[in-house]
Amino acid sequence: MSTWQEDLLNVLDQALSEHEVFPLIEAAARALGFDYCAYGLRVPSPLSNPQTILLNNYPAEWQARYEQQGYVQIDPSVHHGCRKNTPLLWTDAVFAQTPDFWEDARAFGLRYGWAKACIDGGGVRGMLTLARSGEPLTAREIEHSEMKMRWLAHISHVVLSRIFTTRQAEKMDSNLTSREIEVLKWTADGKTSADISSLLDVSENTVNFHVKNAVFKLRANNKTAATVRAAMLGLLG
């Protein structure tokens, strides 16, 4: 196994920060022949306004230009990653509907690229992009390297998703008791307070007490929002 793969596997469980992980992703991208890499991660909580985290080593001028022009709203690569998990190879056809954006990106050296999205059981979606300004990606290179590129996308998502969802959970007073978790699990299954009361052999007032505590700890507005948030954060697993 290559060094960059070993390095990433070694931080799989121990890394506490994206600042530990992203330099390894950059090194892996260089080993695969790419000057640039980017990782975008969307944590679907709250559902009405998902949190997006962006990491990249693109030229600073391009990063500023991308934000200033609001290119994330029209970037075909981003749109692809939000809907599909299949790899995307940058071509003129992909960017045919956004010629100004494509011309701008190429002017900053982002000429040839490949992207792959991943989604996990908690609904966290991420996408790795590898790009360069030099030689085009040939069919032979794709055949030879795409499995490694897919592996890099997957392992990057596993590590970074864990880091950001753990951090989000820790921002809350999420020390749910075992009983609160149990009540939320039954709520997630569509059970009413009366149903849960019967299942757990406790009073309905006791069930509602646990629900109220869980809502407070998860900073939610009601038990539905609390249940969704707990599930998204992996607290019910």
Unreliable segments of 5+ consecutive residues: none
What oligomeric state do these chains adopt?
single chain
Number of discrete helical segments? 10
- The mean pLDDT is 89
Give the tally of β-strands. Answer: 5
Beta-strand content estimate = 5-15%
Q: What is the CATH C-level name of the largest domain?
A: Alpha Beta
Largest beta-sheet details: 5 strands, antiparallel
Straight-line N-to-C gap: 33 Å
Helix content: 40-55%
CATH architect. name of the largest domain:
2-Layer Sandwich
Spell out the helices and strands N to C.
HHEEHHEHEEHHHHH
- Give the number of domains: 2
Query: How would you classify the helix and strand content by structural class?
Result: alpha+beta
3D structure, described in words:
The chain folds into two domains: 3-170, 2-Layer Sandwich (Beta-Lactamase), CATH 3.30.450; 178-232, Winged helix-like DNA-binding domain superfamily/Winged helix DNA-binding domain (Arc Repressor Mutant, subunit A, Orthogonal Bundle). With 237 residues, the chain is an alpha+beta fold. The chain contains ten helices and five strands, in the order ααββααβαββααααα. The chain has helices at residues 3-10, 18-31, 60-68, 76-83, 99-107, 139-170, 178-188, 193-200, 204-217, 223-232; strands spanning 36-43, 51-56, 88-89, 112-119, 125-132. Helix 1 packs antiparallel against helix 2 (18-31), helix 7 (178-188) packs across helix 9 and helix 8 packs across helix 9 (204-217). The chain has a five-stranded antiparallel sheet, sandwiched between helices.
